């Protein structure tokens, strides 16, 4: 079983309404590729690009939620919506699980009802920011670097109440520590190690150890610029990040968060979904079978609220 903590298929289908999820070659994650690999559960993020006018952002988020239901779930009986650990464990052998997530709180503005609406639609993991600032917090790309606002603290309390994962990927450094103080279910859905690759989106050793102390989840992502400071990246770079997190004591938190269809960059050896199984074989050649099970699915399952 493989669980992937992040992809941007909904965004791609939203911006390309004539595309089909079935076998669109431009999609790194599509139905045909999914049915032919061992990914059991894929998290599908709602990501509204920041250039969308503020008064249209929530509507755009609703459009992507509708795409999730109408173009991912409805046409394919073998894809089941999952919102809990039990849902995942009860999937039949030929079934796949789709989990709805949110990347950035900018679509909700400062309206808690909009957030609750998305949670009622099934969002089970919510990132507080993209790279820019919003009413909740600054993102990692905001020079000011502010942490959670009072509204942001209210948002995290709502996520706690609804037992939804609070995602720190893209969040400012100060915001990260505010989440550690307030969130009951913190994760980093798609982030790598800063000590391996010094990109602002990656987490430093102190942050990773904080996630470890909370028994959280950290999905290593396949974005080339987050993997290595080079023009050519490969699956070996992904393994290097996994190994670094492990050496920090993160054997029980590290997992996978590909960010397929959210970036143009290509990692040699795992260019799209069709290469996932061979990548897992590479993991099995480097790490113990017990650790590979943790990486591929057990650590994600453990992080889900009971």
Automatic annotation (TrEMBL):
It comes from Salinibacillus aidingensis. The lineage of its organism: Bacteria, Bacillati, Bacillota, Bacilli, Bacillales. It comes from the Bacteria. Signal peptide: none annotated. PANTHER family: DIPEPTIDASE (PTHR10443:SF12), MICROSOMAL DIPEPTIDASE (PTHR10443). This is Dipeptidase. PROSITE patterns: RENAL_DIPEPTIDASE_2 (PS51365). Coiled coil: none annotated. InterPro entries: Metal_Hydrolase, Pept_M19.
């Amino acid at each position: 079983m493989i669980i992937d903590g992040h992809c941007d298929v909904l965004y791609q289908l939203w911006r390309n309404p004539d595309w089909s999820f079935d076998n669109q070659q431009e999609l790194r994650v599509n139905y045909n590729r999914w049915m032919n690999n061992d990914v059991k559960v894929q998290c599908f993020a709602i990501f509204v690009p920041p250039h969308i006018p503020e008064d249209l952002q929530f509507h755009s988020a609703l459009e992507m939620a509708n795409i999730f239901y109408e173009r991912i779930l409805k046409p394919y009986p073998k894809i089941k919506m999952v919102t809990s650990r039990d849902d995942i464990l009860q999937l039949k052998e030929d079934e796949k699980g789709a989990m709805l997530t949110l990347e950035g709180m900018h679509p909700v503005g400062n309206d808690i009802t909009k957030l609750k609406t998305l949670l009622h639609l099934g969002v089970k993991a919510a990132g507080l920011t993209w790279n820019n600032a919003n009413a909740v917090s600054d993102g990692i790309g905001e020079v000011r670097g502010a942490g959670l606002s009072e509204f942001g603290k209210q948002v995290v309390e709502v996520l706690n109440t609804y037992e939804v994962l609070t995602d720190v990927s893209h969040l400012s450094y100060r915001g990260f520590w505010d989440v550690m103080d307030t969130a009951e279910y913190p994760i980093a859905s798609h982030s790598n190690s800063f000590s391996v690759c010094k990109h602002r989106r990656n987490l430093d050793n102190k942050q990773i150890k904080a996630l470890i102390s909370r028994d959280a989840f950290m999905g290593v992502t396949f974005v080339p610029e987050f993997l290595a400071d080079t023009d050519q990246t490969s699956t070996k770079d992904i393994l290097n990040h996994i190994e670094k997190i492990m050496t920090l004591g993160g054997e029980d938190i590290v997992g996978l968060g590909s960010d397929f269809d959210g970036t143009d960059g290509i990692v040699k050896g795992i260019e799209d979904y069709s290469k996932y199984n061979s990548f897992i074989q590479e993991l099995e050649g480097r790490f113990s079978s017990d650790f590979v099970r943790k990486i591929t699915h057990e650590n994600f399952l453990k992080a889900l609220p009971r």
